[in-house]
Structures are given as structure tokens and as C-alpha cells.
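Hello,

Following up on my earlier ticket. Below are the two sequence lines again, exactly as submitted.
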Amino acid sequence: AQSVTQPDIHITVSEGASLELRCNYSYGATPYLFWYVQSPGQGLQLLLKYFSGDTLVQGIKGFEAEFKRSQSSFNLRKPSVHWSDAAEYFCAVDNTGGGNKLTFGTGTQLKVEL
Amino acid sequence: NAGVTQTPKFQVLKTGQSMTLQCAQDMNHNSMYWYRQDPGMGLRLIYYSASEGTTDKGEVPNGYNVSRLNKREFSLRLESAAPSQTSVYFCASSDSPVKPLHFGNGTRLTVT
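Thanks for your patience. The regenerated structure is below:
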């Protein structure tokens, strides 16, 4: 069965510091890959997605992610974190060829210290 | 532009009661989805509707039924609620299978 692993449940960074959130998946082929962000009491918002092509993808709010096939990883990065980035971040995969039947990771809660 | 609207926002049920969660989108999207979110489990797909008139089971469909009433509306029904169905329920829609999901703000359901 497909699975998505986000090994870090909680991460705390200082404002202005760099950020990397980890995501690993287990599939035979390259799935469609996503990062979503959820602010308290809100639904999820898409940050970025990878379908094919350039393995470094840019998203909204200054986020980027890099697909590494050899490591089955799709880590999310941001060079300088802002206090407003505090939220929960979910990695998701779709191995149904774009059917949008996503499998989500368990999420990483980001806290930003001022 | 409302996007995806879910009602109600909060609901408390007793075991065995029934209820319907409503979802409507105003983006003319073809596909609609119901997810549940539980602590430490991420989001899991309950049911989805690829287009008006079709529905299919997701990962955790037991105890739920859905109706795609028209292109705008996709409801989720709990016929006999159980404490295990205590969760936050999210509806989402998409223009097409390869387009990103747009989520509502969720319904927080507690079953006692």
C-alpha cells in the first residue's frame, strides 16, 4: 500500500532561520507530489506540486520543494521563515495518475519563535 | 468568491443519531471529495465524486454514504453515528483530476 512519512511531528525554528520539512513516500513509480498548509481552524491550502520535469519546484509564500527519486523524498524548504508561517504542513501523494485521490502524511506542526 | 462552503461548522451527536454534512462549491468544479482528519493520522479519503452522477469509495468509507446532488453539492451522511466517527471532516473540490484541491474550512463532529 502507498504510504507517506513525515518523520517530524513538531518543528520549532526562529524567525528568519531556514526551514526544511521532510517527506518520504513509498511507491514503485513516480507519483504526483504535493505540499499543503493548514492554519488553525482552516482548510488546507496548496503550497506547491510536482508532476514531472524540473525536480525543484517553486510554490507560494516563498516555499520550494525538491523531488529526489533516489531517496523517495520531497522535502519542503524555505530560506527565511516568517512568524506567519506557523501552521501545520502536510505532504501528500497521488499515485493514481492524477485522480486526486491523495494519501496524506501525518503532518508537521511548525512553531516559529520570535 | 466563497469557494467551498461546509455546513455546519460544529456538531455534537449522540451514538446512533444520524446527520448529513453539507458541502457546496461555486467554482464549477467537476470533482468533489470528502476527507476526515484525525490527530496523528493526517487526512483520509472517505468518498469522492469524479463528476456529477458518479461516486466512489475512498480509503475509509464504512459508516458513511454520499450523494452528489448536482454539480455544486456533495453531501456526506452518517446513518448511525459512532464515537469512532468523531473527527474533523473536510470537503474539497477540483476542476479536473490533475488540478489542485480546494478545501472548505471543515466540520468538527463529536459523537458521544
